[in-house]
Amino acid sequence: MKKILLSISVVLFTTFFTNAQCTPDPTITDLYQAPPGSRHDTAFGIPYVVLPYAYVGQSYNEVLYFKIPVDTPAFGQTVTINYVKLDSVLGMPAGFTTSCNPAGCKIFGGSSGCLSMTGTPQANDSIELKVAIEYNVTIGGLPTPLRDTISGFMLVIKGGQPVGLDEVATSNKAPKLYPNPANNTLHIDYQGQVADEAEVTLTNMLGRVVAAKSFDVRNGNNTFTFDVHSLSPGVYLYTIQENQKTFTGRFTISR
Q1: In this predicted model, what pLDDT tens digit does every residue of 78-125 receive, in sequence order?
Q2: In the predicted model, what is the mean pLDDT of residues 142-163?
Q3: How far apart are CA 202 and CA 195, in angstroms?
Q4: What CATH class is the domain 176-253?
Q5: Which residues form a coiled coil (predicted)?
Q6: Which CATH code fits 32-158?
Q7: Inter-residue contact 164 to 60 (CB < 8 Å)
Q8: Three-state secondary structure call for residue 102
Q9: Using an 8 Å Cβ cutoff, are 40 and 154 in contact?
Q10: Residue ranges, CATH 2.60.40.2550, the chain
């Protein structure tokens, strides 16, 4: 049954605003897209995704977006996918809750849905998350209920304090962007305190990553440069992750 499960398109990304209920994205076409600020890794040869860090005492909201195909090839035939029901997220920290759209977490073949995980972590931890699902397919003309789990997600909870949109505005170590609005090139001046590495991502307002780079950071001023000539005019978000620090802000592209 793994062949059926692997054919289901799963797209994840982080929202920047906490919502009681997520909104499905019907435009999803990719099999998989990592959320902004996440990174890919492997353990014992098995790939997994480290989700954006959570921080002790800070509200956290992660949204998983699903696109369920109408059918898929399996067992030498075309198998119709009737629905996929998201039962639960296994391994969530204490105090975290989930909500789905559509209500009841049942997503029919050919439609989209999403599941949000919201909570405030209380202790440092590294947790593997799995989504337990029930799905119903038609095999040989007979509806067949099946169960499985979607694994490969890691949530890391740290004790440090991230710097968000409001804090960036008042922090003397806040990154400085120029020109803003940008046209073809965007520069980000960033004050490093130790030699380190920073992950910088640019996302549009739908949460899709439009550019991502890793930069070596030295003590003192650092300049991160992005070629943005191919991006459409509009408002975008940048996220800088370095060790336990996260800076997030907005910039505009105008032509």
Answers
A1: 889 999 998 888 888 888 998 899 988 899 988 888 888 899 988 877
A2: 76
A3: 23
A4: mainly beta
A5: none
A6: 2.60.40
A7: no
A8: coil
A9: no
A10: 176-253
